[in-house]
């Protein structure tokens, strides 16, 4: 049946009357019904190969039997008792398994949240509290979420911030190392990472006091910005710039973390140490999503 079928059209009609449009692509009115492994079915019986992996969340496929069994067992024992006020053994066990897979051999702690945007908000609060500073650097083309703090760092589409001005003050966007379409019309490696020198010479020496910058927030590979991969050595030079002024680094791996790039964390082992990281991963496999905001215990 050519989608959208009659059942899908009926749900779309009902949806438009009662639900916020959010950011769903109405040019592709897919109405999911069930899924198994990499196959997703819509309400009219059409089957699709899920090449977007549930929007980069279903790392082990849909409805993996071990995950389904674990979820069923847990909801039969305990569904909720306010982890923000009390304690769960399974949360401790998850943190103990998760932290060794993150960069650096030093003591770390993790904050579990409900979305990538929430983990970015946590990183903002953490870096403000630790440094006493209130300015930030982020990158043109970035996507870090849509809550009012996170969207202040997002710079992939004007639509993301339209009608929301003013967002959180103090965020300055600088060019990302997009070698294929270099905004400076230069070539790598002859440029010697001029995009980092530009931040130092033309931003931090001209109109953004470096002693007021709490952190540089970045994606190791830009997602919505066009899947832009920085050249090797870029983050090492960025780290030197940050260290020069006592600026922290926030590594947003909501899209690249948890082995999506082939490593548990994309920047793991690249010689950079970060004060905070935002990592997206699937705790469950049937709609139970989880994100972690990682930080060093020295903070």
Please write the string of helix (H) and strand (E) elements.
HEEEHHHEHEEHEHEEE
Order of strands across the biggest sheet?
4-10-9-8-7-5-6
The CATH architecture classification of the largest domain is: 3-Layer(aba) Sandwich
CATH classification, class level of the largest domain: Alpha Beta
Largest sheet: number of strands, sense, barrel closure: 7 strands, mixed
In terms of DSSP E residues, the strand content is 15-25%
Radius of gyration: 21 Å
Q: Which spans of ≥5 residues are poorly predicted at pLDDT below 50?
A: 282-287
N→C terminal distance: 56 Å
What does this structure look like?
- Residues 282-287 have low confidence and may be disordered.
- The protein has 299 residues and is of the alpha/beta class.
- The chain contains seven helices and ten strands.
- Strand 9 (276-282) and strand 10 (289-296) form a beta hairpin.
- The chain has two domains: 6-71, Aspartate Aminotransferase, domain 1 (Alpha-Beta Complex), CATH 3.90.1150.10; 77-296, Aspartate Aminotransferase, domain 2 (3-Layer(aba) Sandwich), CATH 3.40.640.
- The longest helix is centred in the middle third of the chain and has 16 residues, at 116-131.
């Amino acid at each position: 049946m050519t989608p959208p079928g009659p059942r899908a059209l009926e749900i779309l009609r009902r949806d438009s009357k009662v639900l916020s449009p959010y950011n769903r692509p109405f040019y592709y009115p897919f109405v999911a019904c069930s899924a198994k492994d990499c196959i997703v079915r819509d309400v009219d019986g059409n089957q699709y190969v899920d090449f977007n992996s549930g929007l980069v969340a279903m790392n082990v496929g849909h409805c993996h039997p071990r995950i389904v069994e674990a979820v069923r067992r847990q909801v039969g024992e305990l569904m909720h008792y306010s982890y923000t006020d009390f304690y769960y053994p399974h949360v401790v066990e998850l943190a103990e398994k998760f932290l060794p897979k993150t960069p650096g051999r030093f003591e770390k702690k993790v904050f579990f949240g409900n979305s990538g945007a929430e983990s970015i908000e946590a990183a903002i609060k953490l870096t403000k509290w630790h440094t006493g500073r209130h300015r930030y650097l982020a990158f043109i083309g970035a996507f870090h979420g849509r809550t009012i703090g996170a969207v202040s760092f997002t710079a992939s589409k004007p639509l993301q911030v339209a009608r929301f001005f003013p967002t959180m003050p103090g965020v300055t966007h600088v060019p990302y190392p997009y070698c294929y379409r270099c905004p400076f019309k230069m070539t790598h490696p002859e440029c010697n990472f001029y995009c980092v020198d530009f931040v130092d010479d033309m931003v931090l020496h001209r109109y953004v006091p470096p002693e007021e910058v709490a952190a540089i927030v970045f994606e190791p590979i830009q997602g919505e910005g066009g899947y832009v991969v920085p050249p090797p050595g870029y983050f090492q030079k960025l780290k030197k710039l940050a260290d020069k002024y006592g600026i922290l680094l926030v590594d947003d791996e909501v899209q690249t973390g948890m082995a999506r790039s082939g490593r548990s964390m994309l920047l793991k082992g690249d010689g950079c140490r970060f004060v905070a990281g935002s990592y997206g991963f699937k705790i469950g496999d049937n709609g139970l999503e989880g994100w972690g905001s990682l930080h060093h215990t020295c903070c």
